[in-house]
Design goal:
Number of helices: 3
Structural class: mainly alpha
Number of strands: 2
CATH architecture: Orthogonal Bundle
CATH topology: Arc Repressor Mutant, subunit A
Distance between the termini: 13 Å
Strand content: 5-15%
Amino acid sequence: MEVPRIAVDPSICHGKPCISGTRVPVDLIVEMLAADEGVDGVLKAYPFLCHEDIDAVLEYERTRGG
């Protein structure tokens, strides 16, 4: 299932799912959230991201059973 804001491109980050238009891998955001960084911590570390990007990461993880 395709999730808006998440892209997989073999030429970017070795084909890892990333937030569209960035080189920020989905798994990095998931790891930050799991480490209790929280959404605010992620957005502080990556100020070019927005809440919708984080929501897309979580949706992507849900759809793939993560």
